[in-house]
UniProtKB/TrEMBL annotation:
Subcellular location as annotated: Cytoplasm; Nucleus
Positions contributing to substrate binding: D281
Main location (coarse class): cytoplasm
Residues annotated as domain Adenosine deaminase: 12-332
Cross-referenced Pfam families: A_deaminase
EC supergroup of this enzyme: hydrolase
PANTHER family the record matches: ADENINE DEAMINASE, ADENOSINE DEAMINASE DOMAIN-CONTAINING PROTEIN
Gene designation: AAH1
InterPro entries: A_deaminase_dom, ADE, Ado/ade_deaminase, Metal_Hydrolase
Cellular component terms per the entry's GO annotation: cytosol; nucleus
Similarity comment: family membership: Belongs to the metallo-dependent hydrolases superfamily. Adenosine and AMP deaminases family. Adenine deaminase type 2 subfamily.
The protein's required cofactors: Zn(2+)
Catalytic activity of the protein: adenine + H2O + H(+) = hypoxanthine + NH4(+)
Protein name as catalogued: Adenine deaminase
Amino acid sequence: MTSKASFIAGLPKAELHLHIEGTLEPALVRQLASRNKIPIPDAISSLTSTSSGYTFNDLTSFLAVYYPNMAVLLTSTDFFDMAYAYLTKAHSQNVIHAEIFFDPQAHTSRGVPFSTVISGLRQAIIKAERELGMSASLIMCFLRDMSPEFAMATLTEALPYKDYIIGVGLDSDERQNPPAKFAAVFARARQEGWLVTCHCDIDQQDSIKHIRQVLNEIQVDRIDHGTNIVEDASLVELVKEKRIGLTCCPVSNSVVTKDFKGEEILQLLRAGVKVTVNSDDPAYFRGYMNENLMKTMDETDITREEIVQLQRNAFEVAWISERKRERFLGLLDSHAK
Ligand code: HPA
Ligand code: ZN
């Protein structure tokens, strides 16, 4: 291992932007399809005949591969296996805390009960806590290309499992699906005591407008992606003042947009914004935490101290108890000495 790689590998890390359905590696898709006696999804079966892998170049074309692959997830054991595979991988990269997105509507809309989804994911987290000493929690995302009524019904369905879910988010196709469409859903989520984050994907048609909505109307605690704030100094100030974390995903950016936004990430970090680096959908974009940090280090002039600062930001904006935060920051500090 190069000294850069071992520096990154050794850092205690938090991952705050990770879609559990985005960790379905092709081998696991095949295994689950075979176990459930269902056909291998097209995107996977065509993988063998080409060497170039998945083909997508923007968010919409990525989602067109992403959702059909989920057909292999049917039982709580399937959800458990997917989540435990991710947690094991993250642990091997020294991720000590993970906040994991899941998309219940992508499953309930296929007839898989909410209870099946959450019980499998929850069991994997319990096992990772016990056997790997990892800390992890779940963030329930609403699909923004579906109706606010369906989102609200999903919120209601989740109430019996409230203690298993730390907060709620908003993902899927942002085109013509502004955050304000879900204002009532997020207001209710807040009333229920959930923390709130929303995707503001990179270079969308109305990126700035949507970022304003999540800050002013939805009143988010974090923003997923969100680097387009660099275009507006007043937004940078607002995000800084409110200490809102941005969960950036360089490898994912490099696949769904023209570039990986390394300069923007660095500019915001240097301006004092609580920027973090994460993996998003690592099986699809082919990069877990270490690969994302490595890309940032290889392709910008970021210093080692600033890489440590990215991790400090992650622990600072993580949705964890103050006791845990102190412990994790202590681990980071003793490593960075
Ligand atoms: N953006 C929006 N929806 C998503 C993403 C993303 O990066 N990953 C999985 N669903
Ligand atoms: Zn995402």
